[in-house]
Amino acid sequence: DGTMYSGHWVAGAAHGHGKLSKSDGSGYEGDWVEGRKHGSGAEWLVDDSEYRGEFADGQKHGKGCFKWQGGASYTGEFCEDALQGEGTFLWGDGRSYKGQWVQSRMHGNGRFQ
To answer: Which of 24, 97, 104, 105 has its CA 20 to 30 A from that of 72?
Structure first.
């Protein structure tokens, strides 16, 4: 299928630092634990969006930055792939929101401008 992994292996699974490249142009480079993204890394998707930050059990979890193709970006905290906690979202047109997030929605104290 064109998928290629280069890096450390333990007991037949990606473990340690490694790079995964897929035939569609997406991939991940960073830390792995038992075949899952775990620790610091960078993930790029087929639509040219990218995430750099922390992962846990294969999901965005901890602090990181996600950039979308259209120029929007979010820098802050993630929990199980969702925008969660404190973070700043910048839209491509210059608008911004800095504050609290719950399940990828603005929720709690924050400032929109």
So the answer is: 24
